[in-house]
Each structure stands twice: as structure tokens, then as C-alpha cells.
Amino acid sequence: MKEWQERIYQENQKDKARLLVSCPDQPGIVAAVSEFLFKQGANILASNQYSTDRHKGTFFMRIEFEAPDLHQKEALFKTGFTQVAERFEMKWDIIFAYKMKRMAIFVSKELHCLRELLWEWQSGDLMADIPLIISNHEDAREIVEPLQIPFYCLPITKETTKKVEEEQLRLLAEHSIDVIVLARYMRILSPEFVARQKNKIINIHHSFLPAFVGAKPYERAFDRGVKLIGATSHYVTDDLDEGPIIEQDIMRVNHQDDVRKLKKIGASIERSVLARAVKWHLEDRIIVHGNKTIVF
Amino acid sequence: MKEWQERIYQENQKDKARLLVSCPDQPGIVAAVSEFLFKQGANILASNQYSTDRHKGTFFMRIEFEAPDLHQKEALFKTGFTQVAERFEMKWDIIFAYKMKRMAIFVSKELHCLRELLWEWQSGDLMADIPLIISNHEDAREIVEPLQIPFYCLPITKETTKKVEEEQLRLLAEHSIDVIVLARYMRILSPEFVARQKNKIINIHHSFLPAFVGAKPYERAFDRGVKLIGATSHYVTDDLDEGPIIEQDIMRVNHQDDVRKLKKIGASIERSVLARAVKWHLEDRIIVHGNKTIVF
Amino acid sequence: MKEWQERIYQENQKDKARLLVSCPDQPGIVAAVSEFLFKQGANILASNQYSTDRHKGTFFMRIEFEAPDLHQKEALFKTGFTQVAERFEMKWDIIFAYKMKRMAIFVSKELHCLRELLWEWQSGDLMADIPLIISNHEDAREIVEPLQIPFYCLPITKETTKKVEEEQLRLLAEHSIDVIVLARYMRILSPEFVARQKNKIINIHHSFLPAFVGAKPYERAFDRGVKLIGATSHYVTDDLDEGPIIEQDIMRVNHQDDVRKLKKIGASIERSVLARAVKWHLEDRIIVHGNKTIVF
Amino acid sequence: MKEWQERIYQENQKDKARLLVSCPDQPGIVAAVSEFLFKQGANILASNQYSTDRHKGTFFMRIEFEAPDLHQKEALFKTGFTQVAERFEMKWDIIFAYKMKRMAIFVSKELHCLRELLWEWQSGDLMADIPLIISNHEDAREIVEPLQIPFYCLPITKETTKKVEEEQLRLLAEHSIDVIVLARYMRILSPEFVARQKNKIINIHHSFLPAFVGAKPYERAFDRGVKLIGATSHYVTDDLDEGPIIEQDIMRVNHQDDVRKLKKIGASIERSVLARAVKWHLEDRIIVHGNKTIVF
Prior knowledge:
The structure is a homotetramer of 296-residue chains. Chain A is of the alpha/beta class and 296 residues long. Helix content of chain A is 34%, strand content 28%. A seven-stranded mixed sheet of chain A has the order 7-6-5-8-9-10-11, sandwiched between helices. Chain A is globular. Chains in contact: A-B, A-C, A-D, B-C, B-D, C-D. Chain C binds chain D through residues 26-31, 34-35, 37-38, 41-51, 54, 66, and chain D through 26-31, 34-35, 37-38, 41-51, 54, 66.
């Protein structure tokens, strides 16, 4: 994203915020929240809610709002809302839209997902800072560096995994990274690494989960003779390919499509599914609840 | 729908209602409405809102709520809400869910849409009373009468159009009909007829509107060599096939598909598109705004 | 299907046939087959071919053809083709289109798939004789008997499985059944039963296989939080839900959809997927190769 | 595409060709063609056929074949086939796969379609030479020149149209261009220009044709309140947006999507639809028949 785009974006967003709430369901929540916002002079731009169950369920809400000079009143809004939150035992967050999230991308040798993310980012459709891109191979360097994004090639072998992860964590900390996107990064992250980034690592798996968990999903899809192939974007947890699903999509294939063709068709599903998932995350549209996502 | 299904439905729905609102956008609307509902002891089950524009736009909202003994307090709720409504210059309605809408179906010789509606209705997925089905042909009688629904065959010629429409209107009035579904009814209704049923007549047009307005859309789709065919459900206005669109869908076709095949493929799109549109109408999910629909 | 429809169909189809071939790939197959047909005065209406691999692969072909007075020359065509077939070591069949396949439908309590099949059959879109419908419950009787199709209710318990299967096999033999459709038949057939009907039993599984093999797929899809649900039609083999896949499709769902809603959405996928698979089978479009299908 | 990719491609394709045929339908065509190929030692890799009508229709066929040392026998094959062709009054062509088509791309300010084409081309999925890219604006230069493709910026005003077209034609002739892709080129080409490139200009129109012919389709789709938007790739003829359709696709939109959002969603449909159409053209899969396409 060019600097002038960033300036326009921040100017445009500076008085907007997103409120995310989850709490035990009971009458009066919407009234209390919307009254609070009204009293602060805020105007609700969009609002979504969902309850897991009518009786004793969990209530979830996302509100986009704007208020005059909001960017100067962050602390005020946060302190003020604490009272409402306590009354309803809420887990909550107010995210101020002008603060762009800081996103790291991890990639290996397959570059189609990275390309799509960078393309969307250049068009101003993925609003994030990208302070660094990390790979275990050199392949991505030639498409990353022309965009003035720092590229770190950290090759890994079984023996060096732990050391390389420490270096990765150091880089993430150094750049205050908020979200990590695994854009076909073909290494499994250690439980320690994952634990430190809970619900902050977004992966793309090249199958329609829970079908074909693990390695070589296109080969296995070919062997099984499926008539549709898919891709799944999910948050990474310790259980391989078992994390909360954010988005999935599929395309039709037939008996003529060999593994090479499945990979080619699959690549176009992967890139659009991952781009949508990342976009929703950046816009704070996703609430993780247990092993599922609510996408508002 | 069997009587016992109806009883269960009404029991289940008797304390539920839907509030539809549209008004000039301004801060405080959600707060005022949700506070009103909270004070009446109502619990919000689902809520959706939309503004046409951030500045001086129109605001739309649909809230599903339940309240103890709601069915005994209809007048109270309506009177009470009038104050909120006046303050914000709202157009609004509160629809009590246990009152099933009374739906008439018009059909000609093609029965696939009628079949789908009756099937969904028998499965309890279209909650409506169907006091009568009207046709200009006898074909539908054999599938309608076994279901104990009165069937009126009113043949029409150019000369008798006016007289038959009068008879239709008399039947609609006599049965207190709320909504008319044209399930491939192949006659054009007069402006007078339409004017008396504004936003209450749902049609299925067998093309992807605005492509192929008017007669013989499949023949014209074939001649044009399109690669997708579609169907559109919309509210009927005086302008042929120009009313507010509720739902559309398409399927892929290719050079091998002749007109007969297009009609066959199209029939399956028509029936699912119409069924979805009717369902949304019965659940009060649709607000007509100018020549468009907001579907919550 | 009404008798007059059947007569028209048979009149229309009486000089048409389908040739199915599979053999080791080598040059000259198409030339030999098409020359044979040309010499018999046949005209090729449609032709499809596929090879698993360019070198030493398997070659598959389906040809639809017509020839004057074909219905009187069945033996001639079959004897004549034997020479071509031997030269290329073909597995092959010539199916004469006017001979309608004899189809039995098995169903339990969920009737949506049966309804769809009967509907397509009544519209003349599934060309088959249906000499009987078998169920382990009484539920389907009221929609089967009005169509003058014999309905057999054979309740099963664990203890009676073997005896009931014998009775089923007796009925299938008595009615010279060619193909069995399991339209949500919720019992597992014994290996003996399946072995006697190889590639002749078509099942609909209510998930996107290989995800959610076995029982309660909608419940498990809900628990996993998938964003798409699907259905799969396949030939039945001894391995539960592992047989060759014929057709699959999916629909989008979201966090708001509970299990009941998933089942409802799924039902509409199931019925269209099964209807397509059955249609392709009746039109001899499917060749089973190992554990996969080629669908021409 | 890198040189080494090209070398591999040509090595791989050097003995492959595609035969395209159209002629009045009659028995014996397939036999004659396949016998010819067999006698030349050719092996059929894929074959498709289609007839417009069973009686007195037009017959179309595409055969992919390979033969040892084919690239050295081009004249032989062409001369040899002439006899078969004359017997059946065929229009026909044999295209030798190793000869890559020479493709020019025209673009204006919107670059998403160009980007997609270049991306597919770099990945080796669009096998063509791209000797030049022409634009009436400078915007594309920065993504074209790094790929070592000559970029010509030829600005146009109403007054200079004729002169610029002459320059364009000169460039196309100089570079022996076989196919022109209008990747969101926002100028209407003159009838003279189009006449000289019959069925050789591929356009992407940003609507689901025949809906929204002409300018500003997204604005008009928004005004009409459609629930799906689409894109159409077609050959260019003199009638604006009326040429033979090659491919179409759509995506779902709703009342919340403003024109900006429709354009964004539409862009992703446009790029995939155009890329598919161009690919099919390069693989000689398309036969134009009247105002329609047969896509094999």
C-alpha cells in the first residue's frame, strides 16, 4: 500500500471503531450497549448479533460505530464501557479502525496465496501493515522485495526447527506483529509457538476440511475420486488442521482432471478463501467461540 | 400442513413478534427501540439493520423478539411503540408470529413451482394458510384437491379478463388473502389488480432479470447462446418484470443444451428461487425500498 | 410415468443404443469402432472418450448411436461387435435405449429423496420402470400407493436382518430389478447382499465424502463448525460410504444454522444430487473403474 | 514465461496437434476421420463432437492427437486430410500445438484483468507469446515492463481514433498477432478494425450479458437491485456486447453492497472469466457457429 493510500485510509477511519462483545444471554444487553453509545454521541453504522441458544446461551455482538473526534477519546470510551461490561459479565474489545493491524506472512515455495494477498493489499483492499514476510525458501524474494517489504529467508531442517522458531518469534516481537498468515507455509509450527499466538495465526489448508486432514490432500482427493475439491482457512491450534474454520469454498472437478489439474484448480480456491478470511480478521468480523467461528 | 402441526407452531410462536422499521437515519434509533423493548420485558432474538448512506440516508431495521404473554398484549405493544415511532418519523409494523399469513397461489399449466411450494408447506417449512389456489387451467386440480385445498379453475380469454379478475378479487377478499404467489401463472394482471395488492404479489420469472424480460426467455437464452440460465423472484408492479427483485439464482448450461433441456434445468432453479422468496416474505424479512428490496 | 408417456418414449428410442467400452489404450480403437458402426448403417449421436494415461493407460468410450430398425437387429449388432472387441481386449456393452431399466427404491422415514425421484419420474425425466418400493417403515406408503407402485413394508430388527434381506432379494429377483436406489434407507446392507448387486446399488450419503463417513453427519458438521455442507451419491460397496463417488454438491451455511437448519438445507442438496446420479446411471453415462467413476 | 519453460513446452508439445472440423451432419464422418488419423500413425488423445440437430444439422468435432515426428510432417497431414475434408464438405483446421499463438493485450486504467493474464502466463498456464501490450493510458506500464514485454501507450481522443487504430493495426501486423485480448480496454473499436480480426478479439464485459449491455453496468445493476452480478467474455463483433459468448460467471450480492463493492466483487469474476476464455481460445477449444460458441 502506498503512503498516500494509508493517509487517506486513516483520515477516513479516524473516528470509527468496532465493538466486539460476548456474554451470557439475557434481556437488556442491546438496550444497554446502544444507550451507552448514544450517550457518547456515537452513531451505529452496522450491528450484528447472535445467540447460541435462546435459553442460557451465549450472546455475541459486533457493532461498527463512529463518533466525532473518536480518535482522541479512546481511553474515555474504554473506561466508560467497562461499567456496561461488568453488569453483563462481558468479554469485550473496542478496536479503533485507523490503527492498522500489523501482519506477518509466512510462505514456502508455492506463491499463489502470497501473490493474492499482496495484490489485494496493493489495491487497498487488505488494510494492514506488512512489516515482514518470512520464508523457509528463497522463491518469494523476487516478488516481495520490489514492494519494499523486508523479506527474511530462514531455512529449516528438523534439527534447526527450535532455533529458527526462536528467531521467528524474535522478529514477530520486534515488529509488534498482530496477526500471522500462513500462505502455504509448509512447516508445522510447534505447540509453544502456537500457544503464544492464540487465534492470531490464520492458515489455508488445501482441502475441504475435515476431509483430507494432513499431507497431500490433492493426491488423496484424486485417489478417492471426489467430484468437488476445496480449500479451508482456519485459525491454527495444536491439533493439525483442527482449528476453528473461518471460510471454505469448493470447485467442481471430474474424472479427466489429474493431480496437476486439481492443484491448479485448487490454487484459485485457496487464494480467494484465504484472502476472504484474512480480510474478515482485519475487519474484526470474527469471534472465536470454542472450536468454531462466528463471522459477522 | 396438518392441524396438529399448526397447533404446535402457534404454541411455539405465540409470544414472538417481528418489528420492521424504516426512517431517516440519525443517532439514537437503536438505543430508543431496544430500550422500549427491554422495558416491555421483551428479549431480542435477532436483529438486523442497514442504512442506505451514512449521511442523511434511510435506516432500516428488523428485530425478532419474544416477551411473556405477548399474544395478550398486542394492542399494548403497538400503542406503546407509537411514541418511539413518532419521535423518529418511522414507518413501522409489528407482526405477531403466531398469526399465519393467508396465501393464495395462482398457477397455469406448468406445475413444478406449485409442487415445490406445496411440498415445503406440507413439511412445515412454509408457515402459511393456503385458503385457495386459482388457475386458468384444470391441470393443477389433481395435485391440489388431495391436500384439501379449494381449487378454482377460472379460464380466461382476452374478452373475459376483466370479469375473471373481478371474480379473483372477490375470492381474495372473501378469504382475507395477505399474499398472492404467481407460481408460473402465465397471464398478465391488470394495473388495477396490481395496484390493489402493492408488494403483496410475488412472481417467478424464468430468466435472470433484467435479461430476457417478457415472453419465451428460454428460447431467447438459447438463441443468444448464454452459458448460464437463471430465474428471478420479484414483487409484481405495473411494469412487466420490472418490480423489486427478491431473489435470483442461476445454473451453468452449455452448447449441447437445447431449449427443452434449458427449460428442464430452469425449472429446478425456478422452484428453489420462488420457495426462498416466499419463505422470506412469510417471515417478514423483506422491506421494499423504492424499486429494491432489503432482505434481512 | 403414464402409459402413453412410456409408449412415446419407446417409439422415440427404439432405434437408439449406447455402446460402452473400456480396454487397454492403443492407436486405432476409435477408427475400428466408428468403422464398425458406419458399416452397420449407424449414425453416431454423441461420443465421449477418456484415457487414464497416455502411455499404457486404460481407454474408456461411450457412444450413443442410432440405426434404422435397430431394435430388430440387437443380436446382429452384438455378434458383430464381438470381433472388434476381441481385437482390442475390450470390456463392453451395447444397451438398447428402449428397454427401460427396472429400478427398486429403498427408503426409511425421511421421504424427501423418494419424493424427488417420484416427481422426476412422473415428469418423464427419469426413464425407468419402478416395479416396487421397499421400506422398513410405513411412512412412505401414503405417497407411493396413489402412484400405483407396489409398496412393501419390511420392518427390520437386528435379529431379523438376514431373513428380511432374503425376502428383499426374493422380491428383487421376482421383479427382475436392474438397479436399487437407497433413497435415505437407514440400514446397512450385508456384504452378501451388496456382493450380489455390484455397481447396481446407488446410495445418497448426507455429507461431503470423505468428510463425515458414517452416522449423524449433520450433527458432526455442526460440531466441527464447517461453512459448507454437502451430499454425496455413490455406488455401495462393502466399505461403508467408501464406494465409487458418482456426484457431489454443497451449499453454504453459517454460524446461525443449527442442526435442524443444516438438515433442512442438506435435504435439498441430497435430493438433487441423488436425482442426478440416478439419471446418469439410467442413461448409461457411468463407468466404474477401480474405486472411481467416469461420468460421460 | 521464461525461455526454459518455453523450451520444455515446445519439446513436450512438438508431436501434438488439434483437428477442428465442422460440416453438414451425415453418417461416417467419425469413421473417416479416425481412420485417416490411424493410417498416419496418430493416436487420439481426446475427442469431442456435437451436432446442432439430428436431422440435417451441422456436425462439429475437435480431436487432439499425437503422432511420431508430427512436427516434421505438417504439410503431409494437411494435404492428406484435404481428401477427407472434401468428401464431407468440411470447414477444418489442423493446429500444431508447439506453435504458440501470438497474443496482444489491450488495456486501459483498470489493471486486474491484465494482472490475472500475466500471472497465469508467468505460471505457464497460458501458453502464448505476448509480443506487445497496448494501452491508451500509462497505468499498466509499471507492471508490464518488469516482465520484458514491450508496452505501447497510444492515447486516444475522438479526433485521433482513426489514426491510433491505424497505428495499432500496424503494430499487430508487424508482430504477426493471432489473437487480441481486450482486458478492460475501455474504447470501442471501429467496424473496420473488428472486421479485420474476425473471431480473433476476445473481450470481457463487466455484466451478465445480455443484461446491462453498454456503459456502467455495475451502476445499473445497483440501481436495478439485482441479487447476483456477473461478467461475460465474448468475441467482439460490430454490435456492441452482442458477439458470441465464450464464458460467463456470477457472484451473489445483497442490499448492503454499494457500487464500489459491486465493482470489487465483479473484478474477481471478470478476471477468472476472461482467463478461462483466453485459455480455451489458446487451446483451440472454441468453434464459433453463427452467433454462438461451441466450447469443447
